[in-house]
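Request: Have a read of the protein record below and say how the chain folds.
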Amino acid sequence: MQTWIKRDNNDWFLYEVNEVAMDGDLHEFMIRDANGNILAMIRPDNLKDQSQLIDHLNNGKSVDGWKDSKGNTIFIPIGEEGNHDA
């Protein structure tokens, strides 16, 4: 399982994405803020979607604006003090 850490232009921690075993080869992706709070969960529908998601994360893409597993748009608060602690 992998972890991706996203930082802003000032190298402040914004969030991390943790890949978590879910259903055999299909995994879910937990997005946490600097305080460890879960901001969102992404559960790909299939291995192709999962592979594409991992490729995006490996290439430094932000999850801000993506859809979570409930269809809600993921919003990453930027510029709040809590995000600069880690």
The first strand starts at residue 3 and ends at 7.
